[in-house]
Amino acid sequence: MATRRQFLLALGAGAALTAPGVELARAAGPRRIGVLLPATREGFDSRVEALRAGLRELGHVEGKSIAYEYRAADGKYERLPALAAELIGLKVDVLVTAGTPGALALKGATATIPIVIATIADPIVTGIVPSLARPGGNITGLMFVVAELNAKRLEFLKQALPRLKRVAVLMNPDNTAMAPVQREMAQAGAKLGVEIVRFDVRAPDDFEGAFAGIAAKRTDAVVIVEDGMLNVNASRLGALATAKRLPSIGVDEVADGGGLLAYGVNQPEMFRRAAAYVDKILKGAKPADLPIERSSTFSLVLNLKTARQLALAVPPEIRLRADRVIE
Questions:
Q1: 184 and 83, same structural domain?
Q2: How confident is the model at residue 244 (pLDDT cuts 50, 70, 90)?
Q3: What total number of domains does the chain contain?
Q4: Average pLDDT of 109-133?
């Protein structure tokens, strides 16, 4: 017959096996992070790698404490709701996305699984959250005001090209964040004496046709507005603009690909910052209690090689203001 001491030891061992803790977490397997991308997986590689690096720095080990599930819409935003449903069906612990289309797809698919938005335009204007300080519900993350950013891009173009009169603006009409961007740019253009001409592109197959239209309108420069599909093709668009003898400005990859200027936020760094949100949620924090972070760091890139190719004399103030110059 078991003694009272043996009975208590056995009871304690059983409690240790069933108590929440490290051993139970191991038995349950890694926490699963669902990543919904609006464009191609390859196009978002640097951003996704920044997210993974951020979680590694916070002590998470892939395959042990966390695992990833990816779904990419390849620029076809109508696919996002179905892909969101797939991730939810996998019973992921946290969802991560970027951009308004992805955020709206996840918001429409679940009100319970935590959602971290790595980068997005103003989520209040698009109805994703009611407040930045108290987002409520199951959504949090990081943002920057795309409308203000693109108005600033117009100012830089005007400084670089004092005779600027007409600017083409490339937008993806399938992205509902574009309406406030167009309004802000129109207002900024009116103050600068610059006419804004919008050109819609939904896929890379639309680029050549758009630039033919831009040439027909005799525009002086082109602004490439943030969007998942456009971002992953930004290098190509910068090169295409220069080939058409058009100064251009957009995200960093526009200038890196051969465009004249870039002005914006460091999107991979925002994905790295998003890792901190994922980490807090995995440790028990509620998205409703995590304020949405607004990016306040912007950088200007100047491609002097392109300026020479376009026979442009870049004003000294642009060169002095540039955070990075491509020779």
A1: no
A2: very high
A3: 2
A4: 96
> What tokens appear for 34 in the block?
């669902």
pLDDT digits (tens, 9 = 90+) for 178-196: 999 999 999 999 999 999 9
Query: Could you give the CA distance from residue 215 to residue 211 in angstroms, rounded to a whole number?
Result: 6
Q: Are both 107 and 44 inside the same structural domain?
A: yes
CA pair distance 58, 279, nearest whole angstrom: 7
What is the model's pLDDT at position 296?
A: 84
Six token digits for residue 160: 């670089």
Q: Are residues 178 and 314 in the same domain?
A: yes
In this prediction, residue 21 carries a pLDDT of: 35
Does 61 share its domain with 80?
A: yes
Question: In the chain, how long is the greatest CA-to-CA distance?
Answer: 99
> C-alpha dihedral over 145, 151, 156, 157, to 10 degrees?
130
Residues 129 and 171 in one domain: no
Top-ranked range on mean pLDDT: pick from 7-16, 20-29, 98-107 = 98-107
| Residue numbers of the domain that contains 92 | 4-144+268-294
Q: Which residues contact 191 (CB under 8 A, 6 or more apart)?
A: none
Q: Which two tokens stand for residue 175?
A: 């992205």
Tokens of 212: 């033919």
Phi and psi torsions of 61, nearest 5°:
-115, 120
Cα–chain-centroid distance for residue 149?
A: 14
CATH number at residue 37: 3.40.50.2300
User: What is the pairing mode between strands 299-303 and 261-264?
Assistant: antiparallel
pLDDT tens digits along 41-79: 999 999 999 999 999 999 999 999 999 999 999 999 999
Same domain for 302 and 288? no
pLDDT (tens digit per residue) in 140-174: 999 998 999 999 999 999 999 999 999 999 999 99
Whether 273 and 317 share a structural domain: no
One DSSP character per residue, 241-288 reads: HHHTT--EEESHHHHHTT-SEEEE--HHHHHHHHHHHHHHHHTT--GG
